[in-house]
Amino acid sequence: MLKAAIYYHNLNFIKPGGTSRGILKTKPTWFIKVFDQINKTRFGLGECGPIQGLSLESIDQMIDKLNEVKKNINELSNIDLSLFPSINFGLETAFLDLKIGGKKVIFKNSFIAGKPIKINGLIWMGNKDFMINQINSKISDGYSCLKLKIGSIDFNEELSIIKSIRERFSSKILEIRVDANGAFKSKNALNKLDLLSKLKIHSIEQPIATNQWKELKEICEKTPLPIALDEELISINDKKEEFINYIKPQYLVLKPTLLGGFEKTKKWINIAENNNIGWWITSSLESNIGLNAIAQFCGNYELKLPQGLGTGQLFSNNIESPLEIEGQELYFRKNKKWDMTIFE
Fold first, then answer.
1. Of 45, 68, 100, which one is at a domain's C-terminal end?
2. Do residue 79 and residue 187 come from a single domain?
3. Looking at the 3D structure of the chain, how many domains does it have?
4. Does 105 fall in a domain?
5. pLDDT by 10s per residue, the chain, length 344
6. Is the dihedral of CA 208, 51, 89, 339 positive or negative?
7. In this structure, what CATH number is given to the domain that contains residue 55?
8. Nearest alpha-carbon partner for 117 in 337, 326, 336, 335
């Protein structure tokens, strides 16, 4: 018989993160610990970290649902978690961890063995000087792929920032992705995409707000630069194939925490590959517990593109882990230990 424990941990941003939805200063997170009553020192750990205003679940309902899970950990089939993808993700991770040995090894693959994963450098929204300083720092660190959050400041200012990157670093092979988080209006989205395409943008994530399928289909048909769907995927449980065949995007951006775990993420990957659609995995502001699980999941695949796994450096009170970024690569360092103090 298994038992479970729930731990709350409010992650604090070292620097506030600007998005089109506002400024992020903290990130509420819950961890679920699953263990055998006989051997309590061996346990599986999973992270449940929804994002207010983006995740399906309501933050206010998390603790009640987690307490229900804790009480019924041996009878989870009786609990409806369809509207709690982050809890599904946390449970799946915890059970995989426990099954393999309770040492935060979720998948045994090349990443755990030492092979790094190439990642993109994340650039948060802010004024021009703030964004350019971040860009200079990331390029100095060795990143060849940058992801810029756009949509909260004047669009011409954002174009100016990207243009200045291209001019200043013209001698470098630099891939630039942008993420609008649904900030563009459908009526002028194509015009903005045309202006962005002139700056050799790799792709744009979620140019318009979700649930505008007719407009999104037209944008994907006429776009001068590749469209990557992100938030649009979160609420689609059934009819994934039909959705993809209708919209026909160029890329999918997959976030296991928001999609409901690895099995659901695998389904999206299979659909993407069967339809010649590119994809990459992105973390969703998890601590190193969730990030570790997602990175190990990535290690199961021959990755063709940089992944979005650089968020472990954002928090002042993150969980110490074997994860380490060197240059533009994320490593699992076997010689580094986990700090499990808060889970004792």
1. 100
2. no
3. 2
4. no
5. 899 999 999 999 998 776 656 678 899 999 999 999 888 789 999 999 999 888 999 899 999 999 999 999 999 999 999 999 999 999 999 999 999 999 999 999 999 999 999 999 999 887 888 888 999 999 999 999 999 988 878 899 999 999 999 998 887 789 999 999 999 999 999 999 999 999 999 999 999 999 999 999 999 999 999 999 999 999 998 899 999 999 999 999 999 999 999 999 999 999 999 999 999 999 999 999 999 999 999 999 999 999 999 888 899 999 999 999 999 999 999 999 999 999 98
6. positive
7. 3.30.390.10
8. 326
**Catalytic residue of the set 104, 138, 147, 149:** 149
Read out DSSP for 32-56? EEEEESS-TTSEEEEEE---TTTSS
In a domain, 31, yes or no: yes
Rounded to whole angstroms, the Cα distance separating 236 from 64 reads 24
Give which of 168, 192, 143, 184 is closest to 313, Cα–Cα: 143
Q: Which residue has the tokens 């069967």?
A: 274
- Which residues 6+ apart lie within 8 Å of 325 measured at CB? 119, 310, 312, 313, 331
Please state whether the predicted TM-score (pTM) of the whole model is above 0.90: yes
Catalytic-role residue among 65, 104, 255, 264: 255
- The sign of the dihedral angle between the CA atoms of 253, 291, 239, 274 is positive
Residues 85 and 217 placed together within one structural domain of the fold: no
Q: How many CA atoms lie within 13 A of 154 on its CB side?
A: 6
Take residue 278 and report the two structure tokens written for it.
């590119």
Q: Which domain holds residue 80?
A: 2-100
Residue finishing a domain among 53, 73, 100: 100
Give yes or no: 255 in active site: yes
Within a domain: residue 128?
yes
Q: 79 and 139: one domain?
A: no
The DSSP output letter for 308 is: B
